[in-house]
Amino acid sequence: MRTKSGKFICCHLTGGTIPAKVFSVIHRRGLKIQHLLFAGIIGFSFFPSKSTAQTIPRQFLHDHVPPVVSGLTPLGTLAPSTRLNLAIGLPLRDESGLDDLLRQIYDPASPNYRHYLTPEQFTKMFGPTEQDYQKVIDFARANGLTVTATHPNRVVLEVSATAADIARAFHVTMRTYRHPTENRNFFAPDVEPSIDLAVPISHISGLDDYSPPRPRIIKKTPVENLANAIPQAGLGPGGTYAGNDFRAAYIPGVTLTGTGQSVGLLEFDGYYASDITSYESISGLAGVTLTNVAVNGGVSTPGGGNDEVALDIDMAMAMAPGLSKIVVYEAPGSTSWPTILSAIATDTNNFPKQISCSWGLNSPGSTDPISEGLFKQLATQGQSFFNASGDSDAFTASGIPFPSESTNITQVGGTTLSTTGARGAWILETAWNWGSGSGTGGGVSTHYGIPAWQQGINMTANQGSTTKRNVPDVAMTADNIFVVADNGVHYSIGGTSCAAPLWAAFTALVNQQAIAGGQTNVGFINPALYAIGKGTGYSSDFNDIVTGNNLWSSSTSKFSAVPGYDLCTGWGTPAGDDLIDALAGVSDALAVAPGKGFVAFGPVGGAFTAGAQIFTLTNSGIAPLNWSLINTSSWLNASAAGGTLTAGGAAANVTVGLNAAAYNLPAGTYIANVLFTNTTSHAVRDRQFVLLAGKQLVQNGGFESGFLSYWMQTGSGGKFNGYNNDYVDNNGTNSGVLPHSGSYLAVFGAANTTGYISQMIPTVPGQAYLLSFWLTNSIGGSTQQFFANWNTNTIFNLLNPGAFGWTNPVYIVIATSTNTLLQFGARNDPNYFGLDDVSVIAIPVPTIKTFAKTNNLLTFTWNSLATIQYQLQSLTNLAQTNWVNLGNVINASGVITSTNIPISPDPQRFYRIYQLP
């Protein structure tokens, strides 16, 4: 029989009928049976002519069947007419050559250092060939798949097809299953797909919907429902952080705003334009031009993830309010990762140099080779990509959800930030952890080996790996953040979703600095970050986060924040202009280290946790320079007001420290700036100092954040898993225990085990502190214990008490180090302990401030602390050892206390104020 092309097939026909399956195979191969002369067929065979015979080996693909399917019973088969959108991914050419080029591009010693490719150059060097791409297109069309979009890099081919066509083309059966953790069904192939095509295929996205993209955001509560702000909060409603709070905390004095730069945002949803306008108005921002790029049809009506999109936009414009534009890549939630990543990588119209992604998969352990190749494309093109590391605390051995373990993008963890107030100075940060599996994502990859730039770090203390990729790389605040979303609702939210766009916008400032200095943009930032982290300038460039953890019930020993790199916050958060200069490779000839001034805590009158700081001024230029110093504070002294530095690395030291005025300040928060100026270039280095006199040291001591912000959680906590966290309750909603004050309290109800919360307090060795907390137990019983530890010493221990209302244990404790651990632990089998209003306040040394004689009375005033008792005492001779009490014990009610005594007839008398224990 002659075919349409002129080739022959031979048919052997005998009695029977033609099987439909055989008939369809003939038609798919372009063969046509013109007529049949027999009524029945027993056997059927066809043979291509010898000269044209070709055998196409079947490709068997991998990692397309969700592992969970093996333990599930199918509900049925996906309806054959169901239409699905797929993204067929082709592998890059010469990936070893690409990896070598990436190494050169990010090696400062290489002649190719930061010599980036254009998208067109990347495609020419590493993209699939035009011939191979066309063959995949031909295959799709021949198998009933509709080509819906092609990509310039030829890495992704988008197609649409029915489930029946997909089943035939890829030799699978599309089945449906009940999702094991979500209230929905999902579809997936029963076996790994295979394909009759010689052109290599790496992955086919869209064959299942088990784990669609999810935003890395935790919506906490409408801010109108917040009873009180967390201590040291921001300018947003309810004390949330918003607008200029982030710049004030991380880059004080920096004038860079992102001019000439754009930030790209990867989004699987849309947003309400009115929400962005509202945020700008409330936060005092002028606004940034928004450019929406529709991917896979775009998003016509914002969905449930609009809060994530709004948050990303808000954070980008807050950190870099001078951006030329924010490019929002909007795609429906069913869009594949390769589709949106390829759209960003090939977008020559916008081409943002810094990109943020706050979305990820829920299921751990999955990889996507096409997306990894696209991450590499972005890196070769000099585009920085920041990904929110995750909001479920430490990753476990089951793996890390995509894309949070990729070695080709920057993973961003989260912190809980404390500042001096609205637009206030940085005070401290701890690893973000609300408890119950809500906290900064971190862990060790199960797929990727440790990259070269992450090697050489001592992983003993941080429990990281020396052979596998460790996550995250850096961090920023992820707690108590204000956002307007859902068409006008004001929220206080948390999540590493906040941190990733902040880092992308921070990098826009870096790139603005680099371009202004004649350099190029920084691109994939990890090699530079780790070089800084492992170098001598680390302490000047980063806020090293050393407190907190991301422990939770499935990971009770990993991981804790430690000095240097850790698997909670990476290297930490930006510490001002020094990190900008270090990354940009551009700085003024005058360098001032460290990059920030001290933060000092202490009682009124001292002692304070810091008293002085030495700054090293260095001239890295080829000519001498003159420098000057401006001190804006009356409570700081500087050792020099100016000087000259000769060329070639000449250096000088300047000491800035507290003076006598600092010890006479009333209780309060004080901020000062010391400005170092290169009088030749007029470049200014701003170093900020913070003094907190007589301030409460416990952060979130009333638990009014609604979570364990600032507190570290270990052990098992309460009895109502799934509510905010195991320890914090809202007006007794879950425990029945009403708070002592405000709307929230911590409750301890662990049965058969002990739960702990703790917080690291900045202290002065030898300083006395007043520790106060409120405790209640509504039902007595056995197997109850509550205790409080001060730096591992148990100062309060309650065992099997009866029921009691709110009581106030108060202790005077002494610090022995610069940081002291305050810990509460409890077990309560039958009920709950309630804990509220925890405070630690430094007790000032009682120093007589004034002394006056009026008629026959002497009046003394001294600095004091409310609730502390004092006794006025005297001697008539300093050789005596026994001081005599004068008058009654005095209960202080404020920071200044006074008393009167009659004038003694003694010819001389010596007085002192004695603080009672």
Task: Give a short synopsis of this structure.
With 917 residues, the chain is an alpha+beta fold.
Contiguous runs where pLDDT drops below 50 for at least 5 residues: 1-53, 717-725
CATH homologous group name of the largest domain: Peptidase S8/S53 domain
**Amount of beta strand:** 25-35%
Percentage of residues assigned to helices: 10-25%
Radius of gyration: 34 Å
Which structural class do the helices and strands define?
Answer: alpha+beta
Count all strands and give the number. 54
| Biggest beta-sheet profile | 8 strands, mixed
Q: Give the number of domains.
A: 6
Question: What does the model show?
Answer:
This protein is of the alpha+beta class and 917 residues long. Helices cover 15% and strands 33% of the residues. It has 14 helices and 54 strands. The protein is globular and about 120 Å long.
